[in-house]
């Protein structure tokens, strides 16, 4: 039984990989409004019902693919200075998320309808900021409130990207950090 | 020519009304993933190409319908006290936006792909807060920065609703306001 479970896990992971690859390939050659579950399934070499069973619908599949792209690729920059580490994080985050690709990822994650994708996405941000915070504490500093950085630096940047018709400028991002650290 | 333009405007407004009505009616009886542009068009008594020409695709049509629902129905509460007016606004906003219907509206507005719907949505918030601010100034107070309320009260509430798996509590909302006004 346990061995079967392991084999199922392996197959399940391979199906996910193939389906994600199919979505990414189709997005390069098609307008997203033209993409359908049967198209994805055909390209991935699975049946449409496999896709429906696992992802529910196309919006949730797009959300899952977007989350995979949003996973941070490495550790946060380590400048030895907490405020500079946070500045470096938010400048990169704002730039990536306000790009055309970033905006589409945000729309996909939020448009998935469920909370699974958004909670994962938010989790990446927390883990990243907690790494910066742990380094600060390891240097003998007091550390900072990760919640406060999310509420007063990340949230305004995301609100700006989602609801305003312009990208948040580097100056705006740096002012949010300065205001949190120096009032 | 001018008269023709006016008649076009009237027809255009009636088409919008019928199409919005059709979407709202279909959403009551169908899962949104089942709804198609031809279904909406048939119910509204227009051709599918009218819908495509005017709204682009279904996601943009859903976004437009959601924006219509998000338009504030009245003036902000007038308690005579600026902080209490803002508290009253954010408590109601958080409650409405974190409801199932509110979350779906946010997802529709953001998922529309363009910035038209999101910018309108953000505009409603600014107008509402500016009304509260104008009253404060009319009472002889200094007024407040509407930008700051958006960045440090509205944005964290929206981030919370979009990316966390729980509704922002009234206590959380009130603390955001208190922190902005009293540091």
From TrEMBL, chains A, B:
Q: Which UniProt keywords apply?
A: DNA-binding, Transcription, Transcription regulation
The record's annotation in InterPro entries points to:
Homeodomain-like_sf (IPR009057), HTH_TetR (IPR001647), Tet_transcr_reg_TetR-rel_C_sf (IPR036271), TetR_C (IPR011075)
Q: Which residues bind DNA?
A: 36-55
Q: Does the keyword Cell cycle apply?
A: no
Q: Name one GO molecular function term.
A: DNA binding
Decide whether keyword Transcription regulation is in the record.
yes
* Transmembrane annotation, as ranges: none
- Domain HTH tetR-type residue range list: 13-73
Question: What is this protein identified as?
Answer: TetR/AcrR family transcriptional regulator
Recorded source organism is Candidatus Pantoea deserta
């Amino acid at each position: 039984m346990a061995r079967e479970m392991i084999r199922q896990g392996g197959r399940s992971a391979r199906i996910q990989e193939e389906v994600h690859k199919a979505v990414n390939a189709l997005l390069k050659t098609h307008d997203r409004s033209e993409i359908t579950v049967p198209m994805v399934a055909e390209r991935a070499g699975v049946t449409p019902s496999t896709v429906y069973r696992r992802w529910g619908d196309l919006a949730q599949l797009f959300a899952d693919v977007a989350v995979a792209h949003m996973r941070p690729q490495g550790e946060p920059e380590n400048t030895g200075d907490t405020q500079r580490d946070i500045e470096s994080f938010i400048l990169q985050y704002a730039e990536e998320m306000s790009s055309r690709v970033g905006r589409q990822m945000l729309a996909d994650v939020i448009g998935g309808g469920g909370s699974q994708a958004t909670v994962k996405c938010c989790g990446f941000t927390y883990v990243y900021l907690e790494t910066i915070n742990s380094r600060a504490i390891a240097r003998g500093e007091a550390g900072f409130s990760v919640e406060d950085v999310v509420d007063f630096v990340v949230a305004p940047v995301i609100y700006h990207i989602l609801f305003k018709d312009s990208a948040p400028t580097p100056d705006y991002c740096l002012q949010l950090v300065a205001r949190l650290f120096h009032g």
